[in-house]
Write a structure and sequence with these properties.
The protein contains four helices and ten strands; from the N terminus they run E-H-H-E-E-E-H-E-H-E-E-E-E-E. With 175 residues, it is of the alpha+beta class. Bound molecules: coenzyme A.
Length: 175
């Protein structure tokens, strides 16, 4: 069975993915979560997998950002909004979309590593796919100014070599 996979402009494809993201993270449920108040960046690109039943089955957002790690400006990729529609789970969609997102970042030759943020129940999912915890501190922007970001745990993936620790300033909103 062939799988329809696309990498699209983030803003242009927002309306297409909105129903999936609303279904996976309903606004009422998000408001009660520890990260419900966080203002997130918009994805630069999006990987979409169409469900054979119709609509979008899986989404991975891709971000590009020049961050500061221990005082050094470094261009990195970001991954966020990894979501598979409930009726499409355990078909390998998230693994395929994540892999396509990693390859898309890798094709951007300036990116040194990839960074994502996740909750404890997904640590194993990413660790079995080659991601490792970043044990340092993360800072980012929010509407009220610069904050230490502790709402979710950072994980890194090597393109060249990702740091395991230190201080990262995302130089903008988190993803
Ligand atoms: C996490 C999620 C994206 C996985 O999507 P999926 O398309 O079902 O993933 P895949 O089919 O590629 O992979 C499923 C495999 O990962 C495993 N897996 C799924 N979620 C896992 C988790 N939280 N921890 C460990 N393993 C996990 C499954 O056991 C399965 O393994 P198997 O192939 O050996 O059976 C999906 O469950 C989801 O949308 N969850 C809600 C939103 C979310 O938490 N997103 C992550 C944000 S960081």
């Amino acid at each position: 069975m062939s799988i329809e996979i696309e990498v699209l402009n983030g803003d242009a494809s927002w309306k297409t993915v909105e129903p999936l993201l609303q279904a996976v993270w309903p606004s009422e449920a998000i408001a009660k979560l520890p990260w419900g108040h966080v203002k997130w960046a918009h994805a630069d690109l999006r990987v979409l997998i169409d469900a054979p039943e119709g609509g979008v089955g899986c989404h991975v957002g891709i971000y590009f950002r020049t961050i500061i790690w221990n005082g050094h400006r470094i261009h990195v990729g970001g991954i966020g909004g990894v979501a598979t529609r409930e009726d499409c789970r355990r078909r390998g969609y998230a693994s395929i979309a994540l892999n396509a997102a990693v390859e898309t970042v890798r094709a951007n030759e300036a990116a040194r590593f990839i960074l994502l943020f996740c909750e404890p129940h997904n640590f194993a999912f990413y660790q079995t796919r080659g991601w490792r915890p970043f044990t340092g501190d993360i800072y980012c922007e929010q509407p009220n100014g610069r904050i230490r970001f502790e709402a979710m745990a950072p994980f890194v993936f090597d393109i060249k070599r990702a740091p395991d620790t230190g201080t990262i300033d995302l130089c903008g909103l988190p993803w």
